[in-house]
Amino acid sequence: MNKLFTALALALALTSCGSDPINREQGDPRQAAAGMELNWLVARMTDQLMERKSLTTLTEPIAVSSFVDLDTLQDTNWMGQQIEESFIYELNRRGEVVVDFKMTGSIKVTPQGDFVMSRNYRDLSPRLPISRILTGTFSRNGKGILVNARIIDLRTKMVETTAQSLIPQQYLFGANNSFGRASINRGYLMRDSQARPGGHLVNLTP
């Protein structure tokens, strides 16, 4: 009988280790079409997020923010913004109610083109029906860029679910000049009026 209990305990332990997304075999980004490796990795991270997601939150509106540098939590770049866009795509495909807070609510017609999105807070709605947000950080190591994502309930600040992935170094070649912070000329959506001079509080309300 003791041997049986020992065998069951060992089997459960092995099953637990195998279900850990950090140790799990996710495949190879080279399976993706050329140029789509980052999107492929975001799709795998979305799979991780959905593993522990509660079905009761499926209809609760969610927004996605730019992923930021872990060192400062205030700077992003081309990669952080592209990860944001890819997560919007992946969440929508999985039936999530995604709110794009960069929509202005009007069409700006100019000789340069017709625009409906903006990063200038003055053009955006001051209050939005958002109860959850997907956000995350990135940091560099010797193998590439480590990305951590999480879905947070804005009402309680509790983390609902998380995901993690490594973007291998070979998929970052040719982008070294863009790895730094986003240009200030491109604008920031400020979360805290004290964060930077001239900042603006954006209310994300449930």
TrEMBL record:
Query: What Pfam families is this protein classified in?
Result: FlgO (PF17680)
> What are the residue boundaries of the FlgO domain, all occurrences included?
44-170
* Top-level taxonomic group: Bacteria
Q: Could you tell me which PROSITE patterns the record lists for this protein?
A: PROKAR_LIPOPROTEIN
Q: What is this protein called?
A: FlgO family outer membrane protein
Where is the organism placed in the taxonomic lineage, from the top? Bacteria, Pseudomonadati, Pseudomonadota, Gammaproteobacteria, Aeromonadales
